[in-house]
UniProtKB/TrEMBL annotation:
Transmembrane segments: none annotated. It comes from Maribacter caenipelagi. Gene3D superfamilies: Protein of unknown function DUF192 (2.60.120.1140). This is DUF192 domain-containing protein. It comes from the Bacteria.
Length: 152
């Protein structure tokens, strides 16, 4: 009888499901990308900021996706080398590394979902913009383009 009780209790525990909450996009600011250092706007994004340790470590993890006009801007305290990975990120991203002078320095395009391989900035940077995978190429974004952003 004890064995039957143990087997039954193990079966019951395996039926539990863990519900995870979805994380919704919060429009906290606006970002424009300019052709090199000109006034020609290539595109604009609604952005969510990642500044605290928790926000920069979590980023877009646990989300199902974003609209093409949305992105997340990571702001670091100083310019240095950074590496990102796609742990717990369920959709492809373009990771755009931006120097302190607000110019795009490098890209990691179409970063694969759930991949934990480090994706280096290659050069010291202060900002990172994450947008949907493939969008940087589609919009013609390139090294040397500049950004500006504002908070709502």
């Amino acid at each position: 009888m004890v064995v039957a009780l143990l087997l039954f209790s193990c079966k019951e525990e395996s039926k539990k499901t863990i519900a995870t909450q979805s994380v919704d996009f919060t429009h906290e600011g606006d970002l424009s990308v300019f052709l090199n250092s000109s006034d020609t706007v290539k595109t604009k994004f609604n952005i969510e900021f990642a500044e605290t340790d928790y926000e920069t470590q979590t980023g877009l993890m646990y989300r199902k996706g974003m609209k093409n006009n949305q992105g997340m801007l990571f702001i670091f305290p100083d310019e240095r080398m950074h590496s990102f990975y796609m742990k717990n990120t369920e959709f492809s991203l373009d990771i755009i590394y931006i120097k302190e002078d607000l110019k795009i320095a490098s890209f990691q395009e179409n970063a694969q979902p759930l991949n934990e391989t480090g994706l280096s900035s290659q050069v010291p940077i202060k900002y990172v913009l994450e947008i949907n995978g493939g969008l940087a190429q589609e919009l013609g974004l390139s090294i040397g383009d500049s950004i500006s952003f504002s908070r709502k």
